[in-house]
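This section describes the prediction task in plain terms. A model, or a person checking by hand, is given the sequence of a single protein chain and must write out its three-dimensional structure as a string of tokens. No templates, partner chains or ligands are provided. The sample shown here is typical of the held-out split.
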Amino acid sequence: MKVYDLGRLPWAQTQLVYHAMAYLGREALILVSPAEPYVCLGFHQDMKKELDLDFCRSRSLPVFRREVGGGAVYLNSDQLFWQVVLKRNHPLVPLRRDLFYQRFLEPVVKAYQDLGMPARFKPVNDIIVNQRKVSGTGAGEIGDCVVFVGNLIRDFDCSTMARVLKMPDDAFRERFLLSMRKNLGSILSELGLEAYEKWDHKALAPVLTKRFSDLLGPLEPGRLDDELKAAMDDLAGEMLTDQWVHFARKVRPGRLVKVRAGVYLHYKVDAAPGGLEAVYREDDGLLKEVSLRGSSGGQPEGALSLAEKALEDLPLDQIANAMTRLYEEHNWQDWSMRPQDWPKFLGLAKGKPTSR
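The expected answer:
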């Protein structure tokens, strides 16, 4: 098996290379960074729902739709991408997705530990340092191969990430920005400027190669040969077209943004006339910073303020019981929103697609 340490490449090639590798059926570890910043969409995401396209155009940020899962993410040269391509029947690829993530994130955890960061794996697919997420990941099947991609983060531009994503309003965007700054980490944030300057792509690549070789076996240097370049060019003819990048999905009301494993920012909308809007943070199974809005006269006087207080710091599995007690206490018999409606309205992040 080969390792392709490609240094910095033009932004599109950092994505095309592992797609081409998979369609050629080559097993490989690829290490690469983008020469220019760009935005990357997960395969199943709706571009118009996920991204603030006006902002992206104003910053000349190109958008790429990859064939693996995960969410939309802002990428730049402060991230070293690792991309693992293996045949589906490779003996190291387990059938259970949770075991797959744990096995193939272990080299990245150890690489961070080699830098002096107390990294650990957090199910299902995160790496945490001091309760902060330090790697985004995505996985999928391309051709006859399984592909797993992620990054080592030297620094992360939370401000641009918050602007790239489409948000219901500026208040929701500010909440997301604050949550990212609290919950996302990097070499710079955890180890300081001296370590950030020391651990550039050239220094990080051998560390990652060593740790992945412990799992995958000996890795021989590879290069962008003619066959691989031709496959990348062929894919560019499809994957860089507007038809591929923009293909639409059914847009559903509301918004769910993953910050890290266990932390999600929610915007929920009840489509019924006079329906509610809810914004809250789901923090390791608890409701936080709950904000409710509704049309005038759509609910009993003062009900939204009381409901916010009842829901704050509440475990997700106790929503129905808490709201039942609140309704009985205030005799809210005429409110069309019933206690049993609240869990469905607020929803859960569990079981939904995760983002990078």
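For orientation: Residues 349-356 have pLDDT under 50 and may be disordered.
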